[in-house]
Amino acid sequence: xxxxxxxxxxxxxDEQRALVVVFLRGGADGLTMVPPVGNGxxxxxxxxxxxxxxxxxxxxxxNCGLNPALSGIHEIYKNGGLTVVPAVGSNDDTRSHFYxxxxxxxxxxxxxxxxxxxxxxxxxxxxTALSAIALGKAMPEVLRGAPAATVxxxxxxxxxxxxxxxxxxxxxxLGALYGKxxxxxxxxxxxTLQALDRLEKLRSEDLPPMNGAEYGDDSFSNGLxxxxxxIRARVxxxxxxxxxxxxxxxxxxxxxxxxxxxxxxxGLAAFHRDLGELMQxxxxxxxxxxxxxxxxxxxFGTDHGxxxxxxxxxxxxxxxxxxxxxxLETGILVGPGDVxxxxxxxxxxxxxxxxHGAGDSMAEIFPT
Length: 368
Prior knowledge:
alpha/beta; Alkaline Phosphatase, subunit A; nine-stranded mixed sheet; two-stranded antiparallel sheet; globular
């Protein structure tokens, strides 16, 4: 595939439109991330874990707010850049991490991932080697079936080796070998070699974050920093998947997930500042497989539940709460005492994917 004069790899590079999917693996507790406001039952069933009402960061007149550990993204909410979705989830009621994650990443009981199908059926130019990137060690289920997707822990790992070593000669020879190859392998090989060359240039430039953004030194923040660099570099990046693990909080929940919430908030806030006006074209979706039980357990933790929370940052105008957190009275809880799912996660994703070019392909992305 041809490279434009500015060095942009073909795809949607001119638009810099990208969707970043952050998965909080382990079942993040929605009632700690997005606690209720003015609900006495919450404090009765969570005597040690409830967020003090005076500490909750208010979301207008909504009946829920944000945990103070999420203060970085609360500022984004106040400036119209964040949507908070309480009591969200899937129709799965097994409360199994692996099954619930697969179901949510697949978009239902179907093969392949919903993000992979989006890339396959969306409008626009064919995807390239840098259209979809999973920042991690393995391909996530959400990208299964994508026409092109690259797994990398960092840009440094997506390489044939040192540019000044023997692999530089190998890359040149591969370019000559596939330069005129018109078989099915030719375009894919040329595209991959272009991607390698573009990433090498980005590594050599090593430009700092923009707008005074400062990222942490953890793997999650580093992944967001690299995603921002690729988006700004206009390499045709359309989809990014990265995880923030460790949310399974059966025991001693507060010291476990408070640092995770801070890491999540600080990373997202740095990413938002780094991209600046580009956040009008970039959407970040934060999701988890399910929420936790309403009542805390005897180990100062919470067990697997149903309704959780989603966050959507950037893209279309935000700064709102989608739906309501239901009352936590015993009579409306589901199963052994869980928040009911009031909003299907796919109903949040569909308009976002439409904004990112899904066109008329929603039936293929989320088949019924």
